[in-house]
Amino acid sequence: MGNLIKVLTRDIDHNAAHFFLDFENAQPTESEKEIYNQVNVVLKDAEGILEDLQSYRGAGHEIREAIQHPADEKLQEKAWGAVVPLVGKLKTFYEFSQRLEAALRGLLGALTSTPYSPTQHLEREQALAKQFAEILHFTLRFDELKMTNPAIQNDFSYYRRTLSRMRINNVPAEGENEVNNELANRMSLFYAEATPMLKTLSDATTKFVSENKNLPIENTTDCLSTMASVCRVMLETPEYRSRFTNEETVSFCLRVMVGVIILYDHVHPVGAFAKTSKIDMKGCIKVLKDQPPNSVEGLLNALRYTTKHLNDETTSKQIKSMLQ
């Protein structure tokens, strides 16, 4: 048994070194190009989405003024005028989540196909593996920003309340062309989630597994657990960690590790926290706890609140207490 673990660890170490040290420069091979180009079109817009979300200030002041002075038409118009363009932004973010979901499904199809093992896929298709990691990195960053911005839900609630009042009073509403009722319902569900992008990806991964019944579920879960192991080994091994050229690479690895754990926990029948899990959860949590606390609180919260099996009876007391 000891030898087997040594072999497994050695393989993951080798894979980690191979995978992450070449990662930044990974170029698609001919067979990867079609999927790579499709995903690249989506990822090109990711940074702009994050910048827009980061600078999202909301219309809290205008909304408060309008609510406090319901008879003042000018203040009602001012609040509506402030909220409509913001809802346009929220619509863009939501539509991007749908594009991201389609990109993820394309990557999962490529990275789990037979006859290759997850490790072989990660080594053969590094450019696609890198894109998969970039999607997870974006997702965790998006959700961290959304979690700390209550204006998003306040603005959208005000928009919906005002719109239904306008409908009752037969007042034409310019903003309605922007977001119709059906889309507004879907957006409401999306923004009601604490971590909407992660929820979108978890659902997409679960759906991918259920729609591809001819593909063993292990092809997907092993791909995710291998990526988690790679990230953990990179972060806890000084020899590899010392080769990271900047701290951004560390936070990239941390976010990807947490992202794949959450996806694994949603897709695997018994989840990431059970003894039989292929993810070393204690090791992963320790890596997170070894970072400066303020830099990882959002990631620890993601494990606490967006996983599916943490509170199961099969989760050891030690893991539960590590995440308390």
TrEMBL record:
Keywords, in A-Z order: Lipoprotein, Membrane
**Superkingdom, according to UniProt?**
Eukaryota
Q: Name one GO biological process term.
A: regulation of actin filament polymerization
Record flagged with keyword Cytoplasm = no
Locations listed in the record: Membrane
Q: Where is the CYRIA/CYRIB Rac1 binding domain?
A: 19-320
Q: InterPro entries of this UniProt entry?
A: CYRI, CYRIA/CYRIB_Rac1-bd
The main place the protein resides is: membrane
A single GO CC term for this protein reads: membrane
- Membrane-spanning residues where? none
Task: Please provide, alphabetically and separated by semicolons, the GO molecular function terms listed in this UniProt record.
Answer: small GTPase binding
Membrane topology (UniProt): Lipid-anchor
Assigned protein family: Belongs to the CYRI family.
Tell me, how does this one assemble?
A: Interacts with RAC1 (GTP-bound form preferentially).
**Any idea what this protein is called?**
Protein FAM49B isoform 2
Q: Which organism is it from?
A: Odobenus rosmarus divergens (Pacific walrus)
User: What broad taxonomic lineage does this protein's source fall under?
Assistant: Eukaryota, Metazoa, Chordata, Craniata, Vertebrata
Q: Which gene name belongs to this protein?
A: FAM49B
